[in-house]
Design a protein that fits this description.
single chain; 419 residues; mainly alpha; Rossmann fold; 5-stranded parallel sheet; 17 helices; globular; binds zinc ion
């Protein structure tokens, strides 16, 4: 049946089928449209390449209030709107709290979500982010849930490395692959987001290429940009892309700043990066507060009164987790940009042409910085980036680690320019 029905040209399924996710979106769309939905799906691919959008489209389709099945998901009914905002019981997302999913969670909140009767939802989509980060105990507990599936439940298990899942789990899932986006996928998506060729602005091509270079095929980066561009018109989208370009330029200029200002620039630069990440977190928290207020207004509830038990706390907890993750993501982005720049410096120093560079659009800055650093210093800085990234993952002191990294760079630049 897969691939028989064309994906809708607009709406939630079109959004879910962007980039590398088209085949997976077709498979899920055909299955739900024919009412032959498997109760467990394994979505194989790197994080952030469309898993969330697939889950939203599927849950909205299965629960849309529109009578005509061909019109689902309409995108505008109560079920569709709340599913898109991820505040409908038809879509529940489980993310690892720390490095791995815990067996207590599988036995607790997962089991409860699967077994609970939810009159508002014909079908419940239960999404497990990084399902391959369940340990064996958690997998065995999960297997029990898979073996006795309530009729209304659809599990979406997301895994980058399905080899880490038990064969007994894999054999119960239908598999769909989500490959990373290619540069052309990002271009096509952004061109459409900016209103298509007919409405193209004079700076659009440069904005898009800067975003393509910044993306470097990273699903995490893509997920952040998709969130920032959700619901944005062409004008707002241009502002978002201009901010992306400015931020990336600031990261690529780090070596130049340290070379011009010396070791004295280290502490202020690290502070600026950390403050920038905190500002992103706060901006997102502000947006979440507005969303919550809009929801309360739409449903006529006020403060803590009128919410079904536990629902507001669950939404707030999820918003808090997303905002915290955004702070970390912003710092990782700075490190990734810096690491990409250092990697390109090595390539330029070795005589590589633009085709061999991660960011061919920055060749002037690369030639400038390649003359300022020894190969050994660049390698040491690359190692420093890796250490700093690990510290961030462990929730270590980000500012101190950044200072150490930048100090190493500044010292080698300083010694070089004094020589
Ligand atoms: Zn609807």
């Amino acid at each position: 049946m897969s691939g028989v029905l064309p994906l809708p040209a607009e709406g939630l399924w079109a959004d879910a089928g962007l980039g590398g996710a088209r085949a997976a979106a077709s498979a899920l769309h055909d299955a739900v449209a024919a009412d032959r939905l498997s109760h467990a799906w394994l979505l194989v691919g790197p994080d952030g390449v469309g898993q969330r959008e697939l889950a939203v489209a599927l849950a909205a389709h299965a629960n849309c209030a529109v009578d005509d099945p061909a019109g689902r998901p309409c995108g505008g009914c109560d079920a569709c709107v709340r599913t898109r905002r991820e505040v409908h019981p038809a879509l529940v997302t489980f993310e690892p709290d720390g490095a791995a999913h815990r067996v207590e969670d599988v036995r607790g909140s997962w089991t409860e979500a699967a077994m609970r009767t939810t009159p508002e939802a014909r079908r419940k989509v239960l999404r497990v982010v990084a399902a391959d980060r369940m340990n064996v105990a958690a997998q065995n507990a999960f297997l029990k849930l898979l073996e006795e599936p309530p009729a209304s439940v659809v599990w979406l298990l997301e895994a980058e490395d399905p080899g880490r899942l038990l064969e007994t789990i894999l054999s119960r899932c239908r598999r769909a692959d989500l490959p990373p986006w290619r540069a052309d996928d990002v271009r096509t998506w952004l061109r459409a987001t900016l209103g298509g060729d007919a409405a193209a602005g004079p700076d659009d091509a440069a904005l898009i290429e800067a975003a393509v270079s910044a993306a470097r095929g990273s699903g995490e980066w893509l997920r952040g940009l998709r969130r920032d561009l959700a619901g944005a018109g062409p004008r707002e989208a241009r502002e978002v892309l201009a901010a992306v370009r400015t931020l990336r330029q600031a990261h690529l200029d780090l070596v130049d700043v340290l070379a011009r200002e010396g070791p004295g620039a280290v502490v202020p630069t690290a502070k600026r990066l950390v403050a920038g990440a905190k500002a992103r977190r706060e901006a997102l928290a502000q947006r979440h507060a507005e969303e919550l207020a809009a929801l309360e207004e739409a449903y006529g509830v006020e403060g803590n009164r009128g919410w079904p038990p536990g629902v507001k706390a669950r939404i707030e907890k999820r918003f808090e987790r997303i905002a915290r993750a955004e702070e970390q993501r912003t710092l990782r982005l700075a490190l990734d940009d810096l690491a990409g720049h250092l990697r390109d410096l090595l390539a330029v120093a070795a005589g590589a042409g633009p085709d061999a560079l991660l960011s061919p659009d920055t060749v002037d800055a690369l030639r400038r910085d390649a003359g300022r650093l020894h190969r050994a210093d660049v390698l040491a800085a690359l190692e420093g980036v890796a250490t700093c990234r690990e510290a961030l993952e462990r929730n270590g002191a980000a500012e101190l680690q950044l200072e150490r990294l930048l100090l190493g760079l500044a010292t080698s630049l300083y010694v070089r320019s004094a020589a």
